[in-house]
Design brief:
By secondary structure, this protein is an alpha+beta fold. Helices cover 23% and strands 23% of the residues. It is built from six helices and 13 strands.
């Protein structure tokens, strides 16, 4: 193994893809990591999402109940092995301001909405470019002080050099230590497409330089730009990956509309035209569209998030043992 290969492996391990920081980090790297303001996830203009002020008193408050009362379609054996005959699916709906800075709404509101947009756009892109891979690209120490615009431009150049042809960039300004401490370590998570696909996942070769695959390319280009670019394990869902990465992304608090997720290459707005349809909320049992519900039963439905007994969604009996109907569409007034 030559010195450049050894250096790549060292940085890939210690500066790696996960938001963690090993106690065995080389001293030279530990000493060059900038101190954060007040020891918290804030550095210069950047702040971890969910650490601003609550937008309004309405954030996270109960709005309504939605669900599906098509019990005639619920008498089936679902993938979870259960049969929901006679059961109504119910979802508790809350108000979200959809601001990434809001500590109440960033995870269940903003991140859910943004992950849905990413999922929809990549679904269309995958029809043309194949499987979207989860890639992480780490910034070398010399570029830590660059503006976000310059940093993003260099990152796009770095992934292009490794034949990543397009996708979405999600900016992370911080990583997290095992001692529960955030530190400034700018990097980008990418959900994107590699020209010719990523064929290295099941490769049996011991030396990457023997082929022209992604792992060989990223090591070779690393010698020139010092950017660590890695493909992570096979993701389960685009939505789940995007939602998780958005949950601990970073924003520039001086910008009124800072975009955490930005598109590039073949997925840019100029090159990929996608007609976005309003996503309907569907019943997970029968796939019918959810409607607003009214409850006339005797028991108390816990509607406040964080309260004892709260669940975001559940199934319930349509009819009580005495024959009274518990659930009906809200537009119908009463459940009779």
């Amino acid at each position: 193994m030559d010195s450049s290969e050894a250096c790549f492996k060292l940085r890939a391990e210690f500066g790696g893809s996960e938001d963690s920081f090993d106690d065995e980090q080389p001293k030279v790297l530990k000493e060059t990591i900038p101190e954060l303001e007040n020891g918290w996830a804030s550095y210069g203009n950047f702040q971890l999402v969910g650490n601003g002020k609550v937008t309004s008193d309405a954030c996270g408050k109960y709005l309504s109940l939605k669900g599906c009362i098509r019990t005639d379609l619920h008498d089936v054996n679902c993938l979870d092995g259960k049969n929901y005959a006679g059961k109504v699916y119910v979802k508790v709906v809350h108000h979200w301001c959809n601001k990434p800075s809001c500590p109440v709404c960033f995870k269940s509101g903003w991140a859910v909405r943004e992950a849905g947009k990413i999922e929809g756009r990549l679904k269309e892109a995958s029809k043309r470019f194949g499987l979207a891979e989860h890639i992480v690209a780490s910034v070398p120490l010399r570029d830590y002080g660059l503006s976000f615009g310059d940093l993003r431009a260099r990152m796009v150049k770095a992934v292009y050099a490794r034949r990543v042809i397009g996708g979405v960039l999600i900016f992370h300004g911080f990583r997290y230590t095992v001692q529960k401490h955030w530190y400034w370590n700018p990097h980008f998570h990418v959900l994107g497409y590699i020209l010719g696909g990523y064929g290295c996942r099941n490769c049996k070769k011991q030396i990457c330089s023997e082929c022209g695959g992604f792992e060989a390319r990223t090591r070779k280009v690393y010698e020139q730009d010092d950017y660590i670019v890695k493909v992570l394990g096979k993701r389960k869902t685009v939505f789940g990956t995007a939602w998780y990465q958005l949950n601990h992304s970073s924003i520039d608090v001086t910008k009124k509309r800072f975009h955490v997720a930005t598109w590039f290459g073949v997925c840019s707005y100029r090159k990929l035209k996608v007609t976005v349809e309003k996503k309907k909320e569907l019943c997970p049992i029968c796939s019918e569209e959810l409607v607003k519900l009214h409850y006339s039963g005797a028991r108390r439905i816990v509607k406040d998030r964080g309260a004892c007994g709260y669940v975001a969604s559940f199934v319930d009996d349509l009819v009580d043992g005495d024959g009274s109907v518990n659930w009906c569409e809200a537009s119908s007034g009463s459940c009779e």
